[in-house]
Amino acid sequence: MSLATEAHQRHARHYLEVLRQLGNLYRDRSAVSKLFFQLDAEWPQIATARRWAARHDSAVARKCCSDYARCAATLLSLRLSASERIDWLEVALAGATDVGDRVAQAEHLGNLGIAYEDLGQYDESHGYLAEALQIDGELQDERMEQVHLGQLGLALIGLARYAEAITSLKRGLSIAQKLGDRAAEAVHLGNLALALEEMGDLELAERTHESALAISREIGDRRGEGRDIGNLGVVYYQTERYEAAERYFLDALEISREVGHRYGETMDLSNLSGLYQTLGRYSEAVDCAAQTLLISSEIGDLSREAAALGNLGLIAQDVGLYDLATHFTGRALESARLTGDRRGEALRLTAQAKTDRELRLWEKARGTAREAIAIAHEIGARSIEADAWLVLASISNASGYFSAAAEQAAVGLAISRDIGYPQGESSALSEIDNAKTRRTNQTHVRTVLDGETVQTLQRLACPAQ
Questions:
Q1: Within a domain: residue 405?
Q2: pLDDT digits over 258-277, tens only?
Q3: Which end of the chain is more exposed for a tag (fewer CB within 10 A), N or C?
Q4: What CA dihedral angle connects 180, 232, 123 and 148, to 10 degrees?
Q5: Can you give the pLDDT at residue 444?
Q6: Where does 19-130 show beta strands of DSSP type E?
């Protein structure tokens, strides 16, 4: 072995130990600020050491790559985009496979599943997590099995396979409770609540999120607390408790920034943007969406980027800027289709149908709304299905097909009442009234945006200019 190689190995081993110590700091919830200071200081050397190991073909280097990814599994999301994490993890998986470390293989496969999930590539995520679970079973490793069952549940939610997601999450929850892992129990409860939301059971979802939040606070898990607060804010938003929703979204954003959780930050900003758009606070909505786009681009979070674009489309639609609305919605729809996000696809199609209605493109609007209905029905996204039926009813009313509008609104009303969706019920009753009174006037009072906000929208539509 040359002196240079020996020196590189010593350097790599030293910074592997530094990384372990940083991981211990992350687990010490009282030392978060110290962690970020030290991580910033040490990261260039950590990255250099790992880069050397990735470029050398030896048993020591391959094991080093695997060990770096294992020690930095949680810290990676604080400093690397999802795509960069995938690069680390693919090299680490190859190293673990070469040295026959099955435990490490399962961990890397699971973390690859998480990274692809962050990109919104749920099929890829599902594949890696299924492989990880197979190894967990072989090793009879219940601790990692419950982790991977939880992540598989999220991938299944992304694929709109909600019944399978609930089964996976309940299995993970049962194992976490058996092991006495309170942090994991909170995670599983929160994810289970997300699946219940998609199934339309908002009351049970709220209670389940509250249980998760109680555990996160009990054990002092600030990142978990921020996650659970944000999730509760979504339920408050869906049930029109907007003041509480804003308070929870802002609290969640504060925590995400405090603990350096950039994916959480994009989620919180996206939630705030959607809320402010609903409340007609468009300048704030655009500002939050712009921040989401910037951070999402930096960390490679395609799903949050698509959500921000979708929010911008809704804002432009609300104020009558239909060319910009079509542009933003089209980009969000393209992203949803690229990543296999069927729920996002149904949402963006519903939004585009509304824009087409305002442009009096009746046939195009009807076709787009029916496509959204078909996807939402197929994946069991019942609130989206209700919204799409009501958009279709509004198109029929606006174009003079009142009997069809009444029938379509009745379907949306039935779904909304079945799932406890007050926004849908209110819209349905309004469309039924329009159909009865044969009201075709679809003229709305438009908010006039200030010049600075319009310029921001135009800049976001043409970022290269």
A1: yes
A2: 888 888 999 999 999 999 98
A3: C
A4: -10
A5: 54
A6: none
In a domain, 416, yes or no: yes
- State how far the Cα of 438 lies from the Cα of 406, in Å rounded to an integer: 10
> What would the two tokens of residue 312 be?
């911008």
From CA 150, how far away is CA 189, in angstroms rounded?
10
d(C-alpha 246, C-alpha 74), whole Å: 29
| DSSP result, 128-182 | HHHHHHHHHHHHT-HHHHHHHHHHHHHHHHHTT-HHHHHHHHHHHHHHHHHHT-H
Whether 464 maps to a domain, the answer reads no
How confident is the model at residue 52, as a pLDDT? 82
Query: How many domains are there within the chain?
Result: 1
The share of the chain scoring above pLDDT 90, in percent, equals: 53
Q: What is the mean pLDDT of the chain?
A: 87
Which whole number is the average pLDDT over 83-93? 86
Query: With contact defined as beta carbons under 8 Å apart, do 185 and 162 qualify?
Result: no
- Using one digit for the tens of pLDDT, what is the confidence trace for 403-446? 999 999 999 999 988 877 778 899 999 999 999 988 765 555 45
Give 442: exposed, middle or buried? Use CB within 10 Å, 0-12, 13-18, 19+.
middle
More confident residue, 126 or 34: 126
Cα 338 to Cα 153, 161, 335, 344, 462, distances in angstroms = 21, 18, 5, 11, 21
DSSP state of 462: S
Q: Is 11 exposed, middle or buried (0-12, 13-18, 19+ CB in 10 A)?
A: middle
* Residue 1 token pair: 């072995």
Query: What local confidence, expressed as pLDDT, does residue 244 receive?
Result: 97
Burial grade of 458 (CB within 10 A; 0-12, 13-18, 19 or more): middle
Does residue 421 sit within a domain? yes
- Supply the range of the domain harboring residue 417: 338-445
CATH number at residue 407: 1.25.40.10
Tokens 């939050």 label which residue?
288
- Residue 465 is predicted with a pLDDT of 44
